[in-house]
Amino acid sequence: MGRRAVASFASLLVVMAIAACGTSPPPAADATGGLRAAYSGPRATWPAPTIDPGVAFVELGRLERPAPPADPRRAARVELGRTLFFDARLSGPGQMACASCHDAELGWGDGRATSFGHGFQPLARNAPSILNAGLATHFFWDGRAQSLEDQALAVFENQSEMHASTGHVVATLQRSAGYRERFAAAFGDPEPTIEHTLAAIADFERTIASDGSSDFDRFLAGDRGALSDAAVRGLHLFRTKARCANCHHGPLLSDGGFHDVGLSFYGRKLQDLGRYAVTKDPADVGRFKTPSLRNVVRNAPYMHNGLFDLDGVINMYSAGMATPKRKPEQANDPLFPTKSPLLRELGLSSDEKADLRAFLESLTERRRRVRPPEMPALGESAR
Ligand code: HEC
Ligand code: HEC
To answer: Which ligand places an atom closest to the C-alpha of 157?
Structure first.
């Protein structure tokens, strides 16, 4: 069993890379006004970031692809999880898999403003990228799930999404001799359970991680020519004048927190109260999870409602984001949202916006394609 698990893990290495690697010469002329030199030393010597009091800033940093699991049982769990991730037969009508909305070729989202759910009904929110989801502590835009396992369970049971039940999922898997073999390899027990199903999917998701291939990662690793002049200027803007690093920081470029950036559409047709739905704390109205910006270019369109392209996002931040105004009847409304005080009008020039964009583009990783695995046949129970 062990050898088979290792062999099947080898077949998992189907990540296709379409990019040239290697070190790049620094651009001939330095049009960064000394910033390239300032950012060429260790991170501790970088220019001071513009961070407001109370923000627990963590410097931007590298992410490297985690090593594949050495333990054969763990490897078998990842392979099982990958199969489950692609298996539409687990959804109620048998037509939707996790991979329907989280596609490696679409930056692990689905490229749509908001996803189509069960019966092709439009969902309310944008499918976020699940790249590096294994490093998060809260899941969904409102953080309502606290583990990848709980998150997957919620999707199976959501009648607008996979439209299934735990009973349906387990009964489907039990019918398959192939699946029973894979559960045995992964857990030492051929009997599929919902716990093992969720654990395997979560273990597969933990392998969906940044691989250190972005220009920014290569720059951090010492290839100082990996960033263009515009991206170096953009990095500096991101950490200083544009104030982005107040919320987008650390190796993920996310503080993992929840903020109101003024997009709750309170009292309007598109209203989404965000984190408030989970905590019932009026201070959380309109707060959403700060998304990671890794590979952000591939994850368009943006924000929880998927209404914006990247230039739109940069323009809105430059204007300080929209500030909702109370209507007279909302004068004493305790739920009226309060935009984060970390947002200010930035007044970025068009050159500065282009530089900021160049930095965000430098977070782009090698293109990946994850081939759907061979699906075990369903059939009569092998018992
Ligand atoms: C119909 C499209 C669709 C399907 C199918 C789907 N998802 Fe999602 N996924 C979404 C949307 C939309 C969200 C955000 C929903 C929200 O925030 O309320 C999301 C959120 C997530 C997140 C949270 C990411 C984060 O950073 O917070 C993870 C992880 C995830 N999905 C994994 C899965 C897994 C595993 C499956 C299969 C069991 C799955 N998804 C099936 C659309 C889908
Ligand atoms: C107050 C904290 C905060 C600051 C400051 C901030 N962001 Fe954000 N950012 C967020 C939150 C929260 C979201 C999600 C909001 C939503 O969906 O309603 C977000 C979303 C984004 C997205 C969309 C990502 C996606 O996958 O949908 C981009 C791009 C982005 N921010 C870039 C920036 C840039 C560039 C700056 C600086 C100009 C910046 N942010 C400043 C908190 C912040």
So the answer is: 1
